[in-house]
Amino acid sequence: MFINGKVFTEEQARQIHFNALELLAKEGMLVTEKRTREDFQKAGCSVREERVYIPHYLVEETIKYTPRKFSMYDSYGKRFLSVGGEETSFGPGGFEALYLDWRDGQVKDSDYQGLADEAKIVEMMDEIGWMKTSVQPVEKPACVQDLWMAKGGFVYSRKPLHTSPFGQLGAQGLIEMAAEIMGGADVLREKPHLMFNMCTLSPLTMRKDMSEAVREAAAYGVPCFFTSGPMAGATAPVTLAGELTQAWAEILGHNTYLQICKPGSPAVFASWSRIFDMKNATCTVGTPEYALMRQAITQLGKRIEVPTGGGGFLTDSNTLDMQCGWEKFMNGLGDMRANQNLIYGLGLISQMNIFSLESMVIDCEMIGVIQRLLQGIEVDPSHLAYDEIAAHKVDGRFLSSKHTKANYVSEVYWPKFSDRRTYGTWEKDERNNDIRKRVRIKIEEMFNQYSYSLGLEKEAELDRIITKYEALHL
Q1: Using an 8 Å Cβ cutoff, are 311 and 269 in contact?
Q2: In principle, which of 53, 90, 137, 466 could form an S-S bond with 112, CB 3.0–4.6 Å?
Q3: pTM, 2 dp
């Protein structure tokens, strides 16, 4: 039951937080890397074989170290995004090996060209606050696909980049590339342009590659986006409270290690917690339970005053249909209602397996609709319009009144792609009688208007870094 817009009461939130602390202290986390276990032990944890037991006081102490807010910068070194507090911003997400081509409507293997297209449209849309490289360039060597994804983001958008490192070498390569963009490692520390996505492993496990990436992030001031994605009934308890407790413990455990490495390191507490559909053997993201878990994690994060994030505009639908629309709207509304700081998922369909530019553009319209819903109704003498009603109570001529002209544009949300025409007018307009047709026209316009350029010299330097790290993997 929602109480004052929250998923649970303060007492229930306290119980979940305490249970998560108990899990870490008494059941521990499986930590696969020896160095990480040693770091935990030096900080006051007990270690038995590969399991680390983190005491309550250490988790609570490291929460206090975590910044309540931090800023992200664009490639020009200008403050672009504030993360934390009541600020909310939006972006794509995921790691998709399939791409819905907006030109012909066919699903294809993702490639670097699709990644470049994604970054260009991200750059052109004001609703999008950062570049999350979603389209996976499957034709590039697997060992450096993380670097190729970063290159696409760096080259075609000035916006802050959020991406996933492949272990220590991947993290080092990404940081070296970001430092090249920003003018040096010291500038990157002062003005973060890069954020690492850190996926935990359920249940209660810290992988070696994540430990390595956390240390590199701490050394260079790269914010860490800790996201837990258990599946209720498969990798977590089937009850939502149980899954939430486990997910929260996983996030707390990873943040504890980040703060051990360097107190004060910026982090986002996020979750992709889902349910496992046993009928179809699928990992779902278009369910009401998924939406509830986003709001719940956000409530827990706000309770301890840390930045929050997670998947928002997501769907299980495999195409851009009615199911896609209502599931994305449900998830987006839940996140925005909870004031989640970073909301992901723009452009993702098919349980985050396919990326679609058309969906990303339509999702941005959804953002505007939800923002208008949450804005509510303004009540003051001007908006109550008593004099306006009195003046036109007989003639009903509100259409041409000064009051209507003064307030019409600001009071009403005006969509770019939704169709409000009458059936007769709509039927005759074959070029624009489908939302996907209208969106494709807009995408074509944005590509024609696109002008951002990183510069050939810097692009060549990024290629040199990728070649260097590819050789290190051999």
Answers
A1: no
A2: 137
A3: 0.95
